Amino acid sequence: MRRPARLSDTAWSAIVWGLAFAVAAWSQLETFLDPFVISEDARQHIYWMQRFREPGLFPDDLLARYSEHYQPWGYVAFYRALAMFADPLSWSRALPVLLSATTAVVLYRLVSKLSDRFGGVLAAACFAVTPEYMSRMSGAFPRGFAYMLLALFLLLLLERRYRSLAVLLVIESLVYPVSFVVSAATLVLGWVGLSTSRPRLQWQWPGREQWPCAVAVGVSCVILFSQFALENDPAIGQTVTRAQMMGSPEYGPRGRIEVLPGPSLATEFVRQMSRGVLPHWRLRTGGWLKLVPIVALLGYLAVRVARGRRTWPRALLAFPVAGVLGFLLAELVLMKLFLPARYLEATIKLSVLIACTAAASDLATQMGTRSMVAARTTRAFWLLLAVAALPVMQGRGLEDRGEARPLAGFLETLPADTLIAAHPRVADDIPYFAARSVLVNYELAHPFYDSYWATVKDRTRAVLAAHYARERREVDAFCRSYGVDVFVVDRRYFRAAYLDGERLYFEPFDTELRDRVDGDRDFALLAVPETERLFDSGDQFVVRCGGAL
Question: N or C of the chain: less Cβ packing under 10 Å?
Fold first, then answer.
């Protein structure tokens, strides 16, 4: 009897892509059905790109100017090109599905080369149902491209396709510089060898076929230097230094983002390990148990490599080391290479995923030498484990902002140059859903650039002072001073449940706010007559500022 022909690798790649696409589409389904279900960081990365189709939006808007300033050139150019066909907000919903499916196929091909086809399928399956990956890709921000770029880098490096690799390095520098730093470091580590005659490191010049990569590294460094060192916007300023951050509460545990003291290398390394394969739990609440099978599989693989029973590419050893070096370098020149933890996010998770799935496939193969039933049972168990994790993917990385619907519907009827003030938390949704400028919000209250942060800090104090003012004249004076047209009031931020809560806002504003709201709570904005309210629905209403509209 004639055996049926086996599927080709191309056919398997198509199957893997289709299944991964289906899982990702199901995971992100809510954002396609309801435009108010979004990845929350889109309110800082993507919202201003609405100007690509409507140039009159966000005129003279410092927040939009800042958001555009720190985005990589290639990332902006990519969305600008896509905007010729559809709204960037729509693309930010669709791209994560394509990124996830493509990365799954790359991992399938990569791990298939390291073990066998089953290992590749398992790697793709685990990637598709591990929440951390989609949580980072949702919204298609620069970091969302990291997994695809780095997985493709490793595949091209293993296949020795150096010309394609050179092109990829330049793309990484243009789209997500963190991934370029890791890739470049991985290459350089490959050019440093251990001398066979003496126990010392020895520089090995890249071979002739790798020179395109060396040139690409140089070109990419020029690109990054041009964007982040030479380009200077006086309104944004320079990245803050460690000296500027010392003693400033906005960089501490109760600040906008905890930069100092920041996580230790060991803590961050273990945390990313726990998130690399299948759903994770917080390490403090039982997540340590998940590390047991991960460490066991990594140990099994290490023993096999040490005993010479299997090989492991040098690039895959250098890759996590490159992430660690990136972490240490970013810590050394704090904020010049962005946050140190970013260098471990993708490198450690991908390294764990690749190594664990390859080890699981090896284990099943070893069992097959003794019992085919045992091998098939083991393979079935690994795949069922991945399938069982599927439910946690629903809505991964998404947040329902439906509460903003009524307010956004009104605000988008106002002139395009309207400037709006509100509690910073309330102001977060306005630029994205109503395409109108706000004086300040929480999402873009980043203390990373000195001039920008000085302005935002002053604005935040002014907004909060007006928000909790006792007299209307204080609100009117604020509106005149900053050219604010309307003030959005949310009653929830005046109630005792909020004002008596543990945290009103991040430091240094939290302490200042508590002094302001103590005692008499007859706030001027709550007493605005209904005749002066342009809009009133639920907990929110809009106040005219000094007859501006």
Answer: N
